[in-house]
Automatic annotation (TrEMBL):
NCBIfam families: sigpep_I_bact. GO terms for cellular component: membrane. This is Signal peptidase I. It catalyses: Cleavage of hydrophobic, N-terminal signal or leader sequences from secreted and periplasmic proteins. GO terms for molecular function: serine-type endopeptidase activity; signal peptidase activity. GO terms for biological process: signal peptide processing. Its EC number is 3.4.21.89. Belongs to the peptidase S26 family. It comes from the Bacteria. The lineage of its organism: Bacteria, Pseudomonadati, Pseudomonadota, Betaproteobacteria, Burkholderiales. It comes from Rhodoferax aquaticus. CDD domains: S26_SPase_I.
Length: 321
C-alpha cells in the first residue's frame, strides 16, 4: 500500500505541477473531486480495515503481556520489567501513507461541498469589471442562488432563481469552457440589446444613465469618464474611454451571430432562449458578448456578491452590486 499511495500522491503532485507551469490545462473542480474520492476510499479502508487490524494487534499485545505477567506471578515473580505502553502506541499509530490520505479526507470533503454547493472563491485577474471590481480582488461566488449544479459536470439539479439584469455573474467562457469569466448580465433570453454610440438600449428602451465624477485608474494613472447605470432594480457604475471607437472590431463567428447586427455605431443583438448577453463594466476594455457571443444557461457558475480580500487595499472588503 505504501508504494501504491506514493504513486497516487506523485500523480497528484505531477498534475498540479504541470498545471502550475502551463504544461497542461488544469481543472481544479476535477482535481478536488478526484482528491475527495481517493481520500474517501482510504478513509473507509482505514476505518473498517486498517484501524481494526491495528487495534487487534494492540489487544493481542496487551493479552500476551497479561498472560506473561500471570505466568511469572505463579512463579512468585512480582516485579516485572518492561512497559508495553510505548509499543502499544506505536502499533495504533497511523502510518504516513494513511495520514496523508485518510487523515486529509475530512478537510477535503468539507472544502469540496463548500466550494461545490455554497460559495466558491475567485480572484479578479483583469480590469474588465472596473470600477465595480479591481484587479486583485478576491471575491466569493454564491453557487446556489441560480440553482445547485453537480461539480465537474455542471449539470443543474435544482431550479433556483433565474439571473436578473444587473447581476454580476461568473460563467464558463463559451469559446473555452475550462476558463471562468466574470461579467454583468445585461440581456436576458429574448431581449433585444443594442449598444450603439456607447449607449445601452434594451428592448427599445434606453437604460437610465447619469454622469458621475471621473474615475482615476491608479494602475495607468489615467482618468476615465464614469457613469451610473440602472439595470433592473440595481444601480452600478461603468467606465467609457473616449479614445476607443464605438465600433466592435474582431467579433467571432459565434453561435447565434445571425441575430446580431454590427455597424460603425456598435452592435445590436437578440438574445436566444436559454442564453444571456454579458458586458464588462469597463465598457471599452472588456472582451464580452459583443465579441464572443452569448452565455448558455449550462455555463453558469454562480452569482458574485462579496469581496473578501484585496491584499493591496483592505478597504475593498465588502459586498457589491
Amino acid at each position: 500500500m505504501q508504494a501504491l499511495t506514493s504513486v497516487v500522491l506523485g500523480a497528484f503532485v505531477l498534475y498540479a505541477g504541470s498545471w502550475y507551469f502551463g504544461a497542461v490545462e488544469g481543472n481544479f473542480a476535477l482535481l478536488l473531486f478526484l482528491a475527495t474520492v481517493v481520500t474517501g476510499i482510504y478513509w473507509l479502508a482505514e476505518r473498517f480495515y486498517f484501524l481494526p487490524q491495528r487495534q487487534a494487534a494492540a489487544a493481542a499485545l496487551e493479552a500476551h503481556d497479561l498472560h506473561r505477567r500471570a505466568e511469572l506471578d505463579k512463579l512468585g515473580i512480582k516485579q516485572v520489567d518492561g512497559d508495553i505502553a510505548q509499543a502499544r502506541q506505536k502499533l495504533l499509530m497511523q502510518p504516513w501513507w494513511l495520514d496523508w490520505t485518510a487523515g486529509l479526507f475530512p478537510v477535503i470533503i468539507a472544502v469540496f461541498f463548500l466550494r461545490s454547493f455554497l460559495f466558491e472563491p475567485f480572484k479578479i485577474p483583469s480590469g474588465s469589471m472596473i470600477p465595480t471590481l479591481l484587479v486583485g480582488d478576491l471575491i466569493l461566488v454564491n453557487k446556489f442562488t441560480y440553482g445547485l449544479r453537480l461539480p465537474v459536470l455542471n449539470t443543474k439539479i435544482t431550479e433556483g432563481t433565474p439571473p436578473k439584469r444587473g447581476d454580476v455573474m461568473v460563467f464558463r467562457y463559451p469559446p473555452k469552457p475550462s476558463l471562468d469569466y466574470i461579467k454583468r448580465v445585461v440581456g436576458l433570453p429574448g431581449d433585444k440589446v443594442a449598444y450603439l454610440n456607447k449607449r445601452l438600449t434594451i428592448n427599445g428602451n434606453p437604460v437610465e444613465t447619469n454622469g458621475v465624477p471621473e474615475f482615476l485608474d491608479t494602475d495607468t494613472m489615467r482618468y476615465f469618464k464614469q457613469y451610473e447605470e440602472t439595470l433592473g432594480d440595481k444601480k452600478h457604475r461603468f467606465l467609457n474611454d473616449d479614445d476607443r471607437p464605438a465600433f466592435v472590431a474582431g467579433a467571432d463567428n459565434f453561435e447565434g451571430r445571425n441575430g446580431c447586427s454590427y455597424t460603425v455605431e456598435g452592435v445590436t443583438c437578440t438574445v436566444p432562449e436559454g442564453h444571456y448577453f454579458m458586458m464588462g463594466d469597463n465598457r471599452d476594455n472588456s472582451l464580452d458578448s459583443r465579441y464572443w457571443g452569448f452565455v448558455p444557461e449550462k455555463n453558469i457558475v454562480g452569482k458574485a456578491f462579496f469581496v473578501w480580500m484585496n491584499l493591496g487595499n483592505i478597504k475593498r472588503i465588502g459586498s457589491f452590486d
